[in-house]
Amino acid sequence: MWYQVFLWCLAGSVFIHCIAAFVACASLRKHSRGRFLPLIILFVGFLYPVSGGAITSACIAAVYKTANFTMPVYVAFLWGAGQSFISFLLSYSRILPTL
Question: Exposed e or buried b for every residue in 25-49, given b needs 16+ CB within 10 A?
Fold first, then answer.
């Protein structure tokens, strides 16, 4: 159960970071060191789901397992894509620097 949520979180995060890497590559292609920035963006796209995404996916699955609920595939998609979307919103908002 947690694996499905984790995979959707990974897919959503990689999709969002691939778009960001494409934009960075298109705008920084002539920069001497900036052309390597998309590689870092893609690395971060894999880093969050492997660390924080796996933990939150396991917590969501544990709640479902404890409550004896079944998790259909579309619910796993909603949880995984929701994690990626919330991560996207937090990274583009200015909330974290004010804390």
Answer: beeeeeeeeeeebbeebbeebeebb
Domain that holds residue 30: 1-85
Q: Is residue 30 part of a domain?
A: yes
Q: What does the alpha-carbon distance between residue 46 and residue 26 come to, in Å, rounded to a whole number?
A: 21
Does 28 reside within a domain?
A: yes
Is 14 in contact with 45 (CB distance < 8 Å)? yes
Statement: the pTM of the whole predicted model exceeds 0.70 = yes
Quick check: is 17 in a domain?
yes
For residue 44, pLDDT over 90 is answered with: no
The two tokens of residue 55 are 């933990």
